């Protein structure tokens, strides 16, 4: 076992983690721990762009962007946070350009902008060109650019270090961050990292579902660690299903395809979004389009042998526009479905994509331990966090914006705090829980297999807690997840070694997935309304009287010692925009 | 109201049929094996399954000790470069239907980097070479208030090399890289190209020193293995040639 001491530890090297590192490493002694190599992070899979009201191609301003974000989030957005994000968006894009990001350009040489779902001119009049992009690999270019700048700034990385525990201590009766415990993949060695500030930037948990755009590695470890510490998770019932996943596979096809003029059609050839969102049609927010797609399939207008998908039509667009502005998705469609978007309709269906919920933070990215208090020294940014700038449904491009704006804020806040305090003592036996977790799994002899349980989890979540939910389906999912949790106690692994033991880590990751699935389903059961990404067929309307509030879930134990998910609520921060009916 | 789609081809998909496929995998677990050895695994796969799916199934159902890196699963993160039937490819971009399944499909680690376990190699020498070429924008003067201007033509000049995902498929297919421990390999030169041909960059002189070294670009013997191996379709050899030409003429 080794012990390292830093001022700031950043967990995760995607967009939020590296953006934080660029701020923090110049101000305080910083290390970044990632379970991958930085360039493998899933920020690199983002395609369409990053919105900011640069007004490079048409009139725009940050207030319109804020309104769209609030309305897109079905009024569950904390409006002060959205305002900060949309204001700081402009500098966030310009900062990336100055770091070298190769944005597409206008004829005048400025950063080009294109349309994206839910982004409108003057509070919903028409779609606006707001998304700054680099072909359909904007996330790739952000990840590469941030990594390149981390190399330039000589940021210290610990690659393939799996953080498995957060160390807290008490100071004047309050929890305070003390460090993290990590498992080194190459050797199996346990490392303690002592730090004054810790930033969690560990991303989402899309592998809870079977059909997902998410990487194999998006197993919610960061959220799971924080959850197990008894700290709350916010709004976990709000999970985004991106409309255009490649049918049957879930591989993402950017909304930018519709921003470039692509159209969704059902099996009769109808442009069905005209019925659901007459003003902005195929550029409505993702939750509305995903529901419309499922509705079309349910009513028998789906395509294919099982009539279980709809089509993305790019065939009317000039081939050169598709090849130059959307090269990657064109290739994905050709490679994985054998379908050429230039001449053929692409089969698409919603795919699990993004967690609006997560670790609650304030706008300074400090992690909340209840509605009013923070954990000193603990920060979170990016998909793992819930500020909440996305409310009940995130607008396309706002995730790349979120990681840059709040990643930067986290880096500054964590470093400034670290320079103002001393290290706190580590709690007693800091590595004990992690060693117990690892050794228990390595020596387990049960007869359950990780791959089997994971598949069953993903299947029940796809079946029962996807685009549409009801009390019946959610109860089914909850029962299934709880049964899987008890079977998980009998999981064993075959690889007993210490070197690159991915068998072991997949088993530990499954534990986090099961915890998060349960929180998601319990939160969803109790939200008896439909809002944004959470569509309850048994409660089809939004209910602002009873549910315009954030869910706060806590891991608790009842009097008999049984664990359960306790729910509490937190008010939504409303500044400018009173809730209205959401029409597009 | 409903628009009717005319003259548009909709590919009708037949119900897929699974068949048994044998994978011959070069296994090496340093704690138990003195030398790498080949092992066969047979599993049922659909033609549209990826090799990565096959490896996941083998690991999940047959042998949990099988070790490989993977993340995004669709060719954008660069984790799963490996030698499949003797050719460097990404396991997540190689479909069963594109391989001859009448004989075993061989899978092994990429060559030229230290073998750690099964398909896992030590990537550090690869990233060290990348860092050597100063893979970041080196601008001149103060930052402007707004964005730097760049014409669409200037932006297009280095578009191809911005696609690189650092998977190492090119570098570890290069015979010079296999035999010469010093040559920094095609991927690092691709990274250099991406900045040398960026109109916003002024770091040419600094990079020139690195690239012009006797272990630099001049070791390339234009075998085109790298271009064939690139899963992103980057014209790697062409990029290297452009860098060589820039070095000779001392300008971009």
Explain how this protein is built.
The complex is a heterodimer of chains A (584) and B (252). Chain A is of the alpha/beta class. Helix content of chain A is 34%, strand content 22%. Chain A is built from 16 helices and 24 strands. Chain A has helices at 15-24, 62-72, 79-99, 138-152, 221-228, 256-259, 273-276, 286-298, 319-325, 327-337, 398-420, 432-443, 450-464, 471-488, 502-526, 544-547; strands at residues 2-5, 8-11, 30-34, 50-51, 113-121, 126-132, 156-159, 161-171, 174-184, 190-194, 197-200, 233-234, 239-246, 263-265, 310-313, 346-355, 359-360, 366-368, 374-380, 385-386, 468-469, 535-536, 549-557, 563-571. Chain A has a six-stranded mixed sheet with strand order 7-3-2-11-19-18, with helices on one face. Chain A has a four-stranded mixed sheet with strand order 1-10-9-8, with helices on both faces. A four-stranded antiparallel sheet of chain A has the order 13-16-15-14. The longest helix of chain A has 25 residues, at 502-526. Chain A is globular and about 65 Å long. In chain B, the strands form two sheets. Chain B has a five-stranded mixed sheet with strand order 2-1-5-3-4, covered by helices on one side. A two-stranded antiparallel ribbon of chain B has the order 6-7. Helix content of chain B is 28%, strand content 14%. Mean pLDDT of chain B is 93; it is low at 1-6. Chain B is built from eight helices and seven strands; from the N terminus they run ββαβββββααααααα. Chain B is an alpha+beta fold and 252 residues long. The chains are: A alpha/beta (584), B alpha+beta (252). At the A-B interface, α3, α4, α10 and α13 of A face α1 of B.
């Amino acid at each position: 076992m080794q012990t390292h001491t830093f001022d700031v530890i950043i967990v995760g090297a995607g967009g939020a983690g590296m953006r934080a590192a660029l701020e923090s490493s110049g101000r305080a002694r910083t290390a970044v721990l990632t379970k991958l190599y930085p360039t493998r992070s899933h920020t690199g899979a983002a395609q369409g762009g990053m919105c900011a009201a640069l007004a490079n191609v048409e009139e725009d301003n940050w207030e319109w962007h804020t309104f769209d974000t609030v309305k897109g989030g079905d009024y569950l957005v904390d409006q002060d946070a959205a305002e900060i994000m949309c204001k700081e968006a402009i500098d966030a894009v310009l900062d990336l350009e100055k770091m070298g990001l190769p944005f597409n350009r206008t004829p005048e040489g400025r950063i080009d902008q294109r349309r994206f779902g839910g982004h409108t001119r003057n509070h919903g009049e028409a779609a606006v060109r707001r998304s700054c992009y680099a072909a359909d690999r904007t996330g790739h270019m952000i990840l590469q650019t941030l990594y390149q700048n981390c190399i330039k700034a000589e940021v210290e990385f610990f690659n393939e270090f799996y953080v498995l525990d957060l160390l807290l201590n008490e100071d004047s009766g309050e929890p305070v961050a003390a460090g993290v415990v990590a498992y080194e993949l190459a050797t199996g060695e346990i490392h303690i990292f002592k730090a004054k500030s810790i930033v969690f930037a560990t991303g989402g948990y899309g592998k809870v579902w079977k059909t997902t755009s998410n990487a194999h590695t998006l197993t919610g470890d960061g959220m799971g660690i924080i959850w197990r510490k008894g700290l709350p998770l916010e709004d976990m019932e709000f999970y985004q299903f991106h409309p255009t996943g490649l049918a049957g596979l879930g591989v993402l096809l950017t909304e930018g395809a519709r921003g470039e003029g692509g159209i969704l059609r059902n099996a009769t050839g109808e442009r069905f979004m005209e019925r659901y969102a007459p003003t902005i049609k195929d550029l409505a927010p993702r939750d509305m389009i995903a529901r419309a797609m499922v509705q079309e399939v349910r009513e028998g207008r789906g395509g294919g042998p099982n009539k279980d998908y709809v089509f993305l039509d790019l065939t009317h667009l000039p081939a050169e526009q598709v090849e130059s502005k959307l090269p990657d998705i064109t290739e994905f469609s050709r490679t994985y479905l054998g379908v050429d978007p230039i001449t053929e309709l692409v089969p698409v269906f919603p795919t699990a994509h993004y967690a609006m919920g997560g670790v609650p933070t304030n706008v300074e990215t400090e992690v909340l331990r209840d509605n009013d208090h923070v954990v000193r020294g603990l920060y979170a940014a990016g998909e793992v966090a819930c500020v909440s700038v996305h409310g009940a449904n995130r607008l396309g491009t706002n995730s790349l914006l979120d990681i840059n704006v709040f990643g930067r804020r986290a880096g500054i806040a964590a470093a400034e705090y670290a320079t103002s305090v001393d290290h706190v003592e580590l709690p007693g036996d800091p590595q004990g829980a992690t060693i117990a977790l690892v050794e228990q799994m390595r020596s387990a002899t049960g007869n359950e297999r990780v791959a089997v349980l994971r598949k069953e989890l993903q299947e029940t979540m796809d079946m029962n807690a996807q685009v549409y939910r009801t009390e019946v389906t959610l109860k089914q999912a909850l029962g299934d997840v709880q049964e899987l949790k008890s079977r998980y106690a009998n999981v064993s692994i075959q690889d007993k070694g210490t070197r690159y033991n991915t068998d072991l880590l997949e088993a530990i990751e499954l534990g986090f997935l099961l915890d998060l699935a349960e929180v998601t389903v319990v939160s969803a059961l109790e939200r008896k309304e439909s809002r944004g990404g959470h569509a309850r067929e048994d409660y089809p309307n939004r209910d602002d009287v009873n549910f315009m509030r954030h869910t706060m879930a806590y891991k608790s134990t009842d009097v008999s010692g049984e664990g359960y998910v306790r729910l509490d609520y937190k008010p939504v921060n409303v500044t400018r925009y009173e809730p209205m009916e959401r029409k597009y | 109201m409903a628009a009717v789609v005319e003259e548009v081809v909709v590919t009708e998909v037949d119900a897929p049929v699974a068949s048994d496929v044998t994978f011959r995998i070069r296994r090496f677990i340093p704690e138990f094996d003195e030398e790498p050895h080949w092992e066969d695994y047979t599993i049922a796969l659909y033609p549209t399954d990826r090799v990565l799916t096959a490896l996941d199934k083998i690991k999940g159902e047959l042998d949990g000790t099988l070790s490989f890196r993977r993340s995004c699963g669709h060719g954008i993160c660069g984790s799963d470069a490996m030698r499949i039937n003797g050719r460097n490819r990404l396991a997540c971009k190689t479909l069963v239907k594109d391989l001859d399944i009448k004989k075993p499909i061989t899978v092994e680690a990429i060559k030229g980097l230290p073998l750690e376990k099964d398909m896992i190699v030590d990537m550090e020498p690869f990233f060290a070479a990348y860092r050597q070429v100063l893979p970041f924008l080196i601008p001149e003067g103060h930052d402007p208030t707004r964005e730097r201007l760049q014409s669409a033509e200037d932006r297009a000049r280095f578009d191809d090399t911005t696609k690189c995902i650092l998977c190492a498929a090119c570098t570890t297919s290069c015979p010079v890289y296999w035999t010469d421990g010093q040559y920094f390999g095609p991927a690092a030169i691709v990274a250099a190209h991406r900045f040398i041909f960026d109109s916003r960059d002024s770091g040419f002189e600094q990079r020139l020193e690195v690239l012009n070294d006797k272990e630099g670009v001049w070791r390339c013997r234009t075998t085109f293995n790298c271009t064939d191996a690139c899963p992103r379709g980057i014209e790697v050899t062409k990029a290297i040639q452009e860098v060589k030409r820039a070095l000779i003429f001392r300008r971009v």
